[in-house]
Prior knowledge:
- The protein is mostly helical.
- Helix content is 79%, strand content 5%.
- The chain has a 4-stranded mixed beta sheet with strand order 2-1-4-3.
- The termini are close together.
- 12% of the residues are buried.
- The model has no long low-confidence stretch (mean pLDDT 96).
Amino acid sequence: MLPEIEKLLTLQNRDQKLRAVLTEIAALPGEKAARERELKAADDRLEAARSRQREIEIERKKLELEVKGKQDQIFRYKNQQLETRKNDEFSALKHEIENAEKAIVEIEDRELVLMEEAESLKPALQAAQEAHDAEQKKVETHMASLVTRRENLDARQKELEAERITAAADIEEDLLDRYTRLFKSKNGVALVTVEHGVCTGCHMQVNMQTHLEVRAEKEIIGCPQCGRILYEPQ
Ligand SMILES: [Zn+2]
């Protein structure tokens, strides 16, 4: 194998690894966002499970205030009864007091129904809370592993960058330029083998002359179709 090809293959290997690492790093924010969405969805599910419970709480407070209002009314009516001398006014107040007492009984019945509903919601809420906590824990573990992965990838990136500098060090400048352009334009594959007379980069047959030149291993030969640098598999 031509020494230049050997050097370029080492460089391409480091560049491909570096490219994979950079691709992985670039995907991390998206993964983090996905985990955040999972967490938000878990929060929303729990919130939905709790919402009826909250409504019941609000409704119960409202009913308690209504009872209080009716009790105040009764208190006022009774005071008025003490002050009046008129029989018809006294019995009208008595009637009002009875109405208010009936209303209180009705309100308390409604409160009871709400309390029973709240009680019946408890197992579902418990389950929703547990599911939420489990989901949260899972996502947090995932997030922590993303941080570790990021650190490892950053370290690997530095390593590979240093290795590629070493690998590129004694490659002649024009050839390095040619390789670099190919690596960029050919999606990270600048050097490919010729197998059964076919360029494994573009999968086109190379002509006999080119194939012979590649086999001779005297100079750097490019694929006539795709331009990639060709070499014989060892
Ligand atoms: Zn080709």
